Input
Amino acid sequence: HLSSMRTPTAMIVGLVLCPCGLLLTLTGTLAPSWRQVSLIPNQPVDLILEQGLWDICSERQSSHDRHCSQADELGYFEELPVRVAQGLMPASLVLTSLGLVVAALGVRCWQKEPQHLLAGIAGLVLLLSGLLSLAPASWYTHELWALPASAGSTLVVGYSLVLSYLGSCLEILGGLALALSFHHCCKER
Output
């Protein structure tokens, strides 16, 4: 009968949220805008510095003249929250990819029954990967105003940091949804 062919809703939720989370986290990790520095003393008033995990870009708002690979004169990349994020964000991306492969094997729609144990394990892996990217994003946010910048300049959260947060949260929610598959394993025993 058909009801046994249906993929559980929690699995579908997990398989929708986690790839979205991966995409957001990937963009957040690669795009150079975890923090924006503006109104820098002795610089043009429309100059904005965008600092990411790997690059610093400067842009003139009036001309949209953008230059990346700016010199890190203040030792921004040496700061611990930045270095930790440089390690944990890629680790999280690898773990998310691994979790999605395991999830795809566990949820497999081409077999009669999903493999609940595998889907549950994938859920835990994805939950962990979400926490792995949430930790550096949170720490960076906490230290955002303490990280080196020219005295008197204005500091704001950049879009990459926001995307990293959202991606982490989607991975955590998707991972939790897939981890609900363990419930079926217990019921079957």
The helical segments are 9-30, 80-107, 116-143, 159-179, 182-188.
